[in-house]
Structures are given as C-alpha cells and as structure tokens.
Design goal:
The protein has nine helices and ten strands. The protein is α/β, with parallel strands linked by helices. Bound molecules: iron/sulfur cluster.
Length: about 300
Amino acid sequence: MNKYNIILHTTTSCNFDCSYCDVVKDKKQLDFSKINLFIDFIKSNKENLNLIKFFWWEPLLAFKNIKYIVDNTNMFIWNKYELVTNTSLLNDEICDYLEKYFEIVFFSIDSENFFDYNNVFKLIDRYNLNNKVYFNLIISPWKEIEAYNQFEKIYSSWYKNFNILPVYFTKIWNKDDLSNLSVIMKKILDKFIENKDIKLFWFQNNSWYNASLTYDALFIDIDQKIYYSDFVSTYLWKIIKDDLYIWNLNNFSIWNDLGEIIFNKKNRLNLYEKAITNKIKWQIELHKVMDYFSKYLNIRKWVLKD
Ligand code: SF4
C-alpha cells in the first residue's frame, strides 16, 4: 500500500503580502476543539503516513497548535515533520522545537520581503539546524539577479541546502526575464555539479522537472475536509476544489483503497494544469526553461559520473 504525505493547514493567515501570492487569505485558524480529531487520524493511520507537513500561509502564526499536534503525534511518526515558513517569526523557542522534532524545515526567501540573514544564520547555528534547513529560493521576474545574489550570500556563509523555484502562474515572464532566469539557473546548477556539498531539494531527485508541489499528498483543510492537492488553497485552483475533495477527516481511514480515487484526482489535476498552462504562452516558455535545466543537470551528472 502507498504511503501518503499529509499537508495540514493550521491557519489561513499570513503576515506577509507577496505580490505573487495566490492563496486565499480568509484568516481562519484551525479550531482547537477539533485538533484531537486530527491526532486520532494520525494514530489510526500511522502505518500509511510518510510525514506531516505544515505548509502554506504562515504556519508559525499557529505555532501553539503545531506544537500541540507534534507533542501528541510524535510517538507515532517519530520526527517525520516538515514546515515551510517565511522566517519572520522564528525565535529561540521555535528553533529549539524545530531542532528536536522536525526532519526538514524550508525557509522561504524572495527578493520582495526583508530577510534577516544575521538573525536567521545565528538561529541555525545555535540550534544546529544546518542539515534540516533548506532555503526555498523563490525567483520572480525582474528579480532574477537579486535571487542569484541571495543564493551566493547564503552559499558563501556555508549553508548548502536549497530549493530553487520560479514563480508560476501569477507573474508574467517576458523574454528578457526568461533569459535572465536561464543565466542564473545555469550558474546555480553548475555550482551544484562542481560542489558535492550543495543539496538541491526536488531538482536532484528527478529526471524531469515538475512544477507541481504535490505528490502523493493528502491535504487536510482548515475545516477538516481532505483533498487531493493543496493547490485548492489558491484562487487559481479553487474552481476545481470540489473535484479534488476526497472525504471528511472524522470518518476516514487510509485503509480504504485510495488507489483508484487518487488516480482519478491526479488525472483531473493534470488536465487542469495542462489547460491553464496552454492558455498562457509565457507559462509554456517558463516550463520549457525549467525542463531544459532539469535535463541539463541530469545529463551533466551522468557524464561526470563516467
Ligand atoms: S509568505 Fe507565502 S503565504 Fe505569505 S504572502 Fe508570501 S507567498 Fe503568500
């Protein structure tokens, strides 16, 4: 039987306002009285879960709830937690907790928001988070060079784990931007090929590039409904939300045969993704650039191996 990643929403608020953000910010919190439903779900499905990921919006706005969930599920899925944060709310208490219980933590940075390098680097060192932290480098059009400079600054400060991703769907990529993106992708990937100490999340594990952030994941929304794909949290994908609905948390077990359900939902998602990608010319070009660099990386790695 397949194992699933669980993506859980604990809040639909964020303290940032990024221009490329498409998530529906209706400022809800996970109802504390219902958290035990989720904990029971983890308990009874522990054999079929890979990890729990706290993702989208700013999860650390609900750190109290995250802590309660981790404290009460940790004995079933030891340290299999991931978190994506914009880093603005990090402090000693949170970093100490991440160090103890989390497997991977993504620090998202872009060229729009203030990123407090010194404070973040200090916290990473103080709590020995080097191996757990991946810098999520978000590249926007007009800001490609800044993104590369951020990469250089982090790399030269001895932090080596990265996840590189351009902004999809919500920003227009013109010819010059795509050409700048190509230049910096090549520079980053060449550095990765030459330096064995760099880790690239996702890119290095695949022989092809996939813009989708979801892979065999069950997404539990703030109202305790389960969906295939966390894309349903965005305006762009909201219109297929009903199609991606799977079940309610309170009477759901992964022991149900999910194979066929997941297969159908995945097809629906892929069709929609293809349809909107085909509608927008620059989106196709952006995918082409990223596909090219996925092949570039894999061919270079293969050649160097010999
Ligand atoms: S940090 Fe993430 S959720 Fe918050 S505004 Fe930016 S993109 Fe949206």
